[in-house]
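Retro notes - structure team

What went well: the batch runner handled both jobs without manual restarts.
What didn't: labels got mixed up in the shared folder, which is why I'm recording both outputs here explicitly, each with its sequence directly above its tokens.

Job 1
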Amino acid sequence: MIDYNDKKIAIYGFGREGKAALNFLKEKGYKSTINIINDLPLDKEEILKIYHDINFYFENNISQGLLASDIVIKSPGISLYKKEIIKAKEKGTEFTSPFNLWHEAIKIANPTVKIIGITGTKGKSTTSSLINTILCGLGYNSILVGNIGIPALEMIKECKNADFIVAEFSSYQASDVNFSPDIGVLLNLFPEHIDWHLTHDNYYQDKMHLFANRIKGQKLIINPNDALSNKSLSDVLYFENKYGLTLKDIALRGEHNLLNISASLKVIEELGLDIEKAKDIAKKFKGLEHRLQILGIKNNITFVNDSISTTPETAISAIKSFNDYDNITLIAGGYDRKQDYKILADFINHSNVDTVITINQTGKIIADILRDNTQNINIIQSTNLYLAFDLACNNVKENGVILFSPASPSYDSYKNFIERGEHFIKLFEEL
């Protein structure tokens, strides 16, 4: 554990994670100098009025704030590859994360709890939620934390009496941890997040850093068919669809969800729990809001909200999930994270998608690649979801699907994928 007393502590990033870290330190009664460092412009007068006993470093003074601190608690949204951070590390500043603070507190308060950590480019939210649902359904006190919208540091009270903690890790969170889960799951690796990690290789390494501190008895479960996972990791267990489930047996749509269920059941198997009861719970699991969420049918058209889709691969999985329909009108596009959309275009060219409406930053990129790589596809370039929804309704064919699967993050227009998905739901409800 880090000794925070008599140290100059900085909290870098003052969103929800940063505020949770500050509250944690105050509740623990640490008698330390606390600095707040924030890249983004805030309402400074209001902030300084509320936190009058804290030193603030804004925008142009980031480097100064880092160098003036002994320990920096860095929020996950801030890239560890920033020049200011590299320079501060060279000067001896120590960096940690809110997740590390949470883990230290939990291991003191609840030393026997089993932590199950899930990461991967796609499927981690569904798999984390499913594992937690199964454990609760089996009668255990299981708590879901991590990359779910609520900082782990706000969940310490709930975790104190838990039998299991299921933690979903983004690549940002995984890159900073100084511990590994008791059972880790790596679902897959695809190129993503190059804006934060700078290179795809960094992204893969940062993702796998979640398993870098494994100790004796800790297990890692990976997909035997995922090339990048197998290339990079050893001493692993594998999840496979060996539980006799087919798409007809489960409430979730899509072949990829058989893999998510298989990974979840492998965790249950490794815990030595009732696999047959777990299978029954998994069969009934309907998934997450904003993930292949069928909103309903209007005018013989099925509307699907898949706002959680932030990569070309997740959009491909979404399209596959509706291969029993004659035609799909796809709305895609969002924040530009330098992903390769050619694989999406190649897939669309041999799918039941007949109209693609693109929006936001990646809209032009996706539209241009589609025009170069597809045939007989109606490609419409729009600017925002409001207009795209109207275009989709006017272009979709009878008995078809309007699928909102952006294949890109939301940050250019929305706070997060939830806000983006709620906008799509609102448009559907107003139709």
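Job 2
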Amino acid sequence: MKKKEIKKLTKDQSSREIQKLKKDLFNMRFKKINGQIQSPAEFTKIKKNIARLYNSISEKK
């Protein structure tokens, strides 16, 4: 997600998106163990998006 998209989200939407990204990260870890992962760069993208969402939630307080 881009910063502009993240800023438009409400707190509830941001927290839902965080939960979704965490599930994706969890599933990707299992794929990595099994050798089924397509692009390892997705790990960093997901982690950065989670951090951006947490940051936007703290800014809205």
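One thing worth noting from job 2: The chain has a mean pLDDT of 92.
We'll revisit the folder naming next retro.
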